[in-house]
Amino acid sequence: MEFVDTALDDFCMAEEETSAGRMGRRRHIGDETGEFKSKNLHAERRRREKLSGRLLELRSQMNKATIITDAITYIKELQKCVEDLSNQLHEMEAATEEEPATKSYEIDDTKDQMNQWEIEPEVKVIQVDGSKLWIKIVFQKKRGGFTKLMEAMNVLGCDITDTSLTTSKGAFLFTSSVE
């Protein structure tokens, strides 16, 4: 029905504008003012009014109940997401609680390996130049051992220049030049 109305309006507009000139695009409102009037002015006005009416109708359909329903649905989705993430966190915590038991076995294994190969912990410090030292340290291989060694050397104010770290048979061999 809209197509018929639009086609009829266009036909009526075309008849009104036949006297507008050769091109029929614009016609003069008044010769003195020099203003032009669009040939689609009425059709454009109807289109804007129709669009405005449809927007008002759409706004009336978006009432408070639908907004609240959408908000409730979104909150439920967020709660499910929180529940899933907390379950994952609990699983990760359970996995980390199981690790200390394996760590104690690793420490015992490294002690046994060092004893089996008759590796003894030792520390040697040799002065190379005035304030330059060469350090050799052999100690038991365990998690966080090297980190603790580096922290202790940092606390002592040592400037480490060349470092080598080797692991073998349950032991760390650390050599370094220190100033």
From TrEMBL:
Alphabetized UniProt keyword annotations: Coiled coil, Nucleus, Transcription, Transcription regulation
Ranges where the BHLH domain occurs: 41-84
Nucleus keyword on record: yes
Gene3D superfamilies: Helix-loop-helix DNA-binding domain
GO molecular function: DNA-binding transcription factor activity; protein dimerization activity; sequence-specific DNA binding
Superkingdom assignment: Eukaryota
Transmembrane segments: none
GO CC annotations, alphabetized: nucleus
SUPFAM superfamilies in UniProt: HLH, helix-loop-helix DNA-binding domain
InterPro entries to which the protein is assigned, alphabetical: bHLH_dom, HLH_DNA-bd_sf, TF_AMS/ICE1/BHLH6-like
Subcellular location per the Swiss-Prot or TrEMBL entry: Nucleus
Residue stretches in coiled coil: 41-98
PANTHER family: TRANSCRIPTION FACTOR DYT1, TRANSCRIPTION FACTOR SCREAM2-RELATED
Annotated protein name in UniProt: BHLH domain-containing protein
Organism: Escallonia rubra
Lineage of producing organism: Eukaryota, Viridiplantae, Streptophyta, Embryophyta, Tracheophyta
